[in-house]
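At this stage, I wrote out one protein, both as residues and as discrete backbone shape codes, and that material follows here.
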Amino acid sequence: MRLTPIPDAGLGVPPVPRPAAEPQDLLFEVENLKVHFATDDGLVRAVDGVTFGIPRAKTVCIVGESGSGKSITGRSLMNLLPHTARIVDGHVLYHPEPGRTIDIGKLDPRGKPIRALRGKDVSFISQEPMAALSPVHTIGQQMVPVISRHLKLGRREATERAAAMLARVGIPKPAERLGSYPFEFSGGMRQRVCIALALSCRPKLVIADEPTTALDVTTQANIIDLLVELQEESGLSILFITHDLGVVAEVASDVVVMYLGKVVERGSVEEIFHDPRHPYTRALLRSVPRLGAGRDTRLAAIRGMVPSPFDRPKGCDFHPRCDFAIAGTCDVTAPPDVALGGSRSVRCVLPEAIRPPVQRAETPPSSTQRTLRHG
């Protein structure tokens, strides 16, 4: 067991090396996705032209502050949106096998085709297991029907698989615990139950939305380890939604950085941590506490607040908080999404200007000081 370091942008210790995926390896492609909310105060562009890919058997992390649109982006991959939201443009392309493509965004969100995919091909792990699990049904009553329906198994076989999945995620006496209610489990054990439920029908993609947020540090480490192990065993893809850069350094192959509904930068985990090209990405990395820093060291906080989605700034959304903003340019014209080669892109007019290295931390730590295992 060791601390997973957070590299300093430009100089620090590298995250775990993982090869970037080739285009033909993509399981999902999100193209110019736009999701709007209708509210009493007006229209909210929660997701505004998002593009990225999810490789087979790899982990993509979406990073951003609260309100960046990362959770809505994740839910769009299942077409599982709040009733006030809808996909107004773009595509969510699912490639279950070579030569076959399904546009998830074009399916009726309440129709049989999408319901056949949810849970079987694509599953979801919530950050709130008590909200995800029914409090008035036993774990078995929630797992067995899903397994039976999607895998076409009889009740006995489905029950055996449910118990086997609970055992796999570390639930003691799994056959007995199928008769337990969610409140009879600890927070960490409830999250393990949610993972077992999410993986019970052998999905190709798991969307994990802040799955460790409400857990203590040790349990967080165990849950991350478990997801990595299960991915290695089954070859599933993971879309990990988080604000924790320590988790990103540990599990990601590719990283998508979001701000106010837009992707401002994307690339491999090595590219994002070592060569950030967007001022927001750089600011996020600089704001992580460092174990080697002295007691009097001040955090490099990002100045200002995230703008209201009802009152977006003109030009670049980040320019009011940006240390590199150019008057007359960044506050006037919205920057294009600039391709930098491969899957790398940045939404900035100054992708080269922000490249001076950041001061190296003496002891690069994890942002949460959690202990994690390199798989």
DSSP finds eleven helices and 14 strands in the chain. The chain has a mean pLDDT of 86. Residues 217-234 form the longest helix (18 residues). The longest strand covers residues 26-39.
